[in-house]
Structures are given as structure tokens and as C-alpha cells.
Design brief:
binds magnesium ion; histidine kinase; globular; 27% strand; binds adenosine-5'-triphosphate; alpha+beta
Length: 158
């Protein structure tokens, strides 16, 4: 099915806006008002990936920090970046965050409830759509999660 990724980003930011405000975290979607960015896949699964990334970013960012969602396109793929100025993830933990039930050893992260299933599920969904979910992070400085999906021309739809 054709899914508008821009709309999913917008919806995700809207969904988590109240929680971000309560936490004193500035949340914004840089491409707000973007024309549709059409990918093919399961709308609920794709929404789940973005919701998870934004949920984590808000959860693991202290007061006065910011979470920025942005979208970029090349000829053949689209990326959704969720960048935060939060607690960050140590290099040791970075190898494990996509494993089921893993939660970082960072005490700042452990004070926030979670089951450690969000990212493994999100990564599995990304890969089942021919895409990837990756991360760059520096402990104490913040994290950027990148969701990449292939763009297909209408010729390939079949
Ligand atoms: P849930 O199943 O409710 O999503 P969770 O958020 O703990 O629980 P994941 O989303 O899989 O689980 O994330 C795994 C771990 O990675 C988290 O427990 C946290 O330690 C770390 N993590 C994920 N996103 C971030 C982030 N944006 N900043 C810092 N740490 C993060
Ligand atoms: Mg999570």
C-alpha cells in the first residue's frame, strides 16, 4: 500500500507533543507541511517505527533539551532522522540497543520505564520493508536514529 511518510512524521510529532511539553522538551518536525512522500508498505508498522523513535527521543531527553524530526530524500531513498540532545548511548550499549529486552546500563536511562522491545521491533519492521534503522550517539550529548526506506517509482509497483 502507498503510505505518506511525511504524514506519519507529522502524526507522530502531534501524538507525542503533549508528553514533550510536560517534560519540557522542545519537539519539532522540520519538514512540516511537506508534500506527500510516498513509500510502499504497512501504514501501521511504519507508524510504529517513527512513533518508537520519537517516543524514545522524548523519554531519554532531559528538561530543556530538544528532539528534531527531519526527512530527506535522494533519488532512490528517503530518510527520517530523529535527533535528540538527550542522555546519549555509550559505545558499549550501541551494539545492543537493537537486541530484544536490552536496556542500557546508563542509570539515567534505567530511571525511565520501558521493556527494551521498541527498537528491536522497529528495526525488524524497517528491514522487512527493505530499509534500515541505524543510530549515531555520543554519551551525554545525544542520539540520532535514522530510518531509511527505498523509494520506488510507479513503474516498479507491479
Ligand atoms: P520500550 O519497549 O517501551 O520501547 P525501551 O524504550 O526501554 O522500552 P527500546 O526502545 O528498545 O526500549 O530502547 C532500548 C534502550 O536503548 C533503552 O532502554 C535506552 O536505554 C536506549 N535508548 C533508546 N533510545 C534512546 C535515546 N534516544 N537516547 C538514549 N537512550 C536511548
Ligand atoms: Mg522505546
Amino acid at each position: 500500500r502507498a503510505v505518506d511518510l511525511a504524514e506519519l512524521c507529522e502524526a507522530s510529532v502531534d501524538l507525542l507533543d503533549i508528553r514533550a511539553k510536560q517534560a519540557g522538551v522542545h519537539l519539532a518536525f522540520l519538514n512540516s507541511g511537506s508534500p506527500p512522500v510516498v513509500v510502499f508498505g504497512d501504514p501501521e508498522e511504519l507508524a510504529r517505527v517513527i512513533d518508537n523513535m520519537v517516543d524514545n527521543a522524548v523519554k531519554y531527553t532531559p528538561e530543556d533539551g530538544s528532539v528534531t524530526v527531519s526527512m530527506a530524500m535522494t533519488v532512490d531513498e528517503v530518510t527520517v532522522d530523529v535527533a535528540d540532545t538527550g542522555i546519549g548511548i555509550s559505545v558499549a550499549d550501541q551494539g545492543h540497543v537493537f537486541s530484544a529486552f536490552h536496556r542500557s546500563t546508563n542509570p539515567n536511562a534505567l530511571s525511565v520505564p520501558g521493556t527494551g522491545l521498541g527498537l528491536p521491533i522497529a528495526q525488524r519492521i524497517a528491514e522487512s520493508h527493505g530499509g534500515t534503522l541505524t543510530l549515531e550517539s555520543e554519551l551525554g550529548r545525544g542520539s540520532t536514529f535514522r530510518f531509511t526506506l527505498p523509494l520506488r517509482s510507479s513503474r516498479d509497483e507491479g
